[in-house]
Design a protein that fits this description.
With 354 residues, this protein is mainly alpha-helical. It contains 12 helices and 3 strands. Helix 4 runs antiparallel to helix 5 and helix 7 packs across helix 12.
């Protein structure tokens, strides 16, 4: 029954863009992303009726308070995180005709409108209507760029905003820029660490391959999910804002333990949620006719691989919390969480090139 209502709602608010049935070049995808990013950045400079422009920035989403991007992409990012817990996964993620694939964006629109009316209750309804209109335009952008861009709209905006702040720091805060560069090198080095698992082909004798299991097994997903959820909560409940503190103060004494605990809890469950546990990996290897070199017992293989994954997840959590703590003790040009996102984008693009 819920699927019926979401499908009906989607048929009213989603523009029926032409289905992509042809190959789109990377150049065209870059162009589409650039055009969207430029327009969104221009909107982030237009004052919101009843809004007050401040320097408040999000760590994991794009929003600029007091402008048309007051809410920005935050509701859509949070909705994409919450959707797997609320809706069934589409059978084929590449099937654009499956309405369930668009449920996260529809949920993002609903959340944006709810947050807009909450804001309008205190600051004025004209501004709330502006925010609803911007949310509708962001929905259409998400749908259009789904198959026509290389990275998500929110990630592109975060990358553009953070890059601008880093470039400005070269001239205004050179010491901070140098510290940011050192952190980038540290994060990139940590991301490159991996444990190699030797696999042998089941039928071809002597055919051996190495399967790397990253030490940063879940990358920075746990930190990004934690901050996205936290920033969304604080947008509804202001007193919890102290938990987002990243500057040395009394509030950091409570914010830091909550972050360490939250990242650890998310990290320990993320592999299973993403079907990346030992059993899932061993099953994929067997489908490719590979198995652990010198091993025959499936249970022992699963246990051995799971021990490696669990150990990597522990190191993953330790590295994330340690780098975040360094960013608190001496803040870089951009937040450490944003820095993780930037490096993750660069890393994914490099993997696509090679």
């Amino acid at each position: 029954m819920a699927d019926y209502y979401w499908s009906e709602f989607g048929s009213y608010v989603m523009y029926p863009f032409k289905k992509v049935t042809w190959h789109i070049s990377d150049r065209e995808k870059h162009f589409n992303t650039a055009v969207f990013t430029i327009i969104a950045l221009m909107m982030s400079e237009i004052p919101l009726i009843g809004g007050l422009r401040t320097d408040e920035m999000s760590e994991v989403t794009f929003k600029v308070s007091g402008t048309l991007m007051q809410l920005g992409t935050q509701p859509f990012v949070f909705a994409s995180m919450a959707a797997p817990f609320l809706f069934d996964k589409p059978k084929d993620p590449k099937d654009t005709n499956d309405t369930r694939q668009h449920y996260p964006n529809l949920l993002g629109l609903v959340m944006s409108c709810a947050m807009a009316f909450k804001w309008g209750w205190s600051n004025g309804w004209l501004g709330a209507l502006q925010l609803c209109l911007v949310a509708y335009l962001l929905l259409q952008s998400e749908l259009y760029l789904q198959r026509r861009s290389l990275i998500s709209p929110s990630t592109a905006l975060i990358f553009a905003q953070a890059s601008k702040r880093i470039l400005i720091s070269i001239f205004l805060q050179p010491v901070s820029f140098i510290w940011t560069a050192l952190l980038v090198c540290g994060v990139a080095w940590v991301e490159s660490l991996h444990v190699t698992v030797p696999l042998s082909h089941m039928k071809t004798r002597g055919h051996v391959r190495s399967m790397p299991l990253a030490v940063m097994y879940n990358s920075t997903s746990a930190l990004i999910m934690y901050y996205t959820a936290l920033e969304t909560i604080t947008s509804w409940y202001g007193p919890a804002r102290f938990l987002t503190s990243q500057r040395w103060s009394k509030s950091i004494l409570m914010a830091a333990p909550c972050l360490w605990l939250g990242v650890w809890k998310i990290n320990t469950h993320l592999a299973g949620f993403n079907n990346q546990n030992a059993r899932d990996l061993v099953k994929k290897w067997r489908e490719q006719k590979y198995t652990l070199k010198g091993w025959r017992d499936s249970k022992r293989i699963n246990k051995y691989i799971q021990n490696i994954i669990d150990r990597n997840v522990q190191w993953n959590t330790l590295f994330i919390c340690a780098l975040w703590t360094l960013g608190v003790l001496y803040p870089p040009s951009v937040g450490i969480t944003t820095l993780f996102i930037l490096i993750g984008v660069v890393k994914r693009q490099q993997l696509k090139l090679f």
